[in-house]
Amino acid sequence: MPTPTDGPPGAEAARRAVEAVWRIEAPRIVGALARWTGDFALAEDVAQEALAEALVGWARDGVPASPVGWLLATARRRAVDAFRRSSALGERYAALAGPLAEGEFSTGAAGAPAGPPDLPFDPDRVDDDVLALMFTACHPVLSPEARVALTLRVVGGLSSEEVARAFLVPVPTVQARITRAKKTIAAARVPFGLPPPRERRARLGAVLSVLYVIFTEGSTATAGEDLLRPDLAYEAVRLARMLAALLPAEPEVHGQLALFELTASRFPARTGPDGEAVLLEDQDRRRWDRSAIRRGLAALGRAAALGRGLGPYGLQAAIAACHAGAASVADTDWERIVLLYEALGRVAPSPVVELNRAVAVAMAEGPGPALALVDELVVSGRLSGSHLLPGVRGELLTRLGRTAEAQAELELAARLCRNGRERAVLLRKAAALDAEG
User: Is the pTM of this model over 0.90?
Assistant: First the structure.
């Protein structure tokens, strides 16, 4: 979203109003415009133009009584101008440029019902618009990176600068991804709208995977000096809540929401006063967000009640629920966590799942059996280059009293780790072993 550097006295108030409206209503605004124009890329472009015009107009004239209606009407005029300028779309413009009451979202075709003039959205289509927007932004024709960028931009309402800052990439890179994504959608002739019911469940996986990437990056940053990026994680939670409301019969949607809520409940205790990482065994569980835990458990219950069995996200949520219900690390039901990781490994096999299972085995059975599992991963080479594998191996070797080997593994993990807070923990552990030696 454009941000002014200076302006009239009302510029700051206008900026705050525009940002608030956009952050809350972005998916509904872009979704309604995409349905009205039939062009996803144009809808996003004219919405951004309307935001830029609002920054100037609202600073001069004050915030209108209906900010959303103002943005929609302005964006719609911009869309009509775009059609007028394009001779190739002359016939389409003629259809769209018919008499439309402000706030009506119709193609202009004969016989289209007109809504009340002050109604910014068709109340019977809002949910479909938002859901269609999610499915379009996460369409399988796009690369995973493009899906994330486009989802955060048009569904989450984040600016290119915010997306770039969240993933530590240059702003031009994010802008290029968004531009390419919109061109790809146009070239592939992806229609704006919900996929047919027979395709919806298959394509839902792409939507869930994008939200998972966003939340994961927010809950433990890949790189940088902050362990958490709460704004990014909470944006994923907000989008997951929206998706659960729109698709109440899909168990994995509720499972993912449960995972996000339960994981985010621990955020207040995961960092110290100076932002340093606090390990699970050292966390003050009184600081865990009990409201988030209740919401997460309720979502997990809804996922289970649908009767199809828990999928990958639901199983991860069940693991998080084991932690949420335990008074301490020692009181945690590690045997159940091992079983849940075994189930997760069958439905969604990955080396990270195997590594996490090894950690749970170490807690349930001891470091010896866990080290055997970790060494199998080392031999496979499937996590080479990741700091996670030597980090866990160093912990297990420490518990087995193999101090020199443990120190070497922890130092290797620190060299591979790109997050400053996690790196500091690894170096501190390695230094403690050195002092013991």
Answer: no
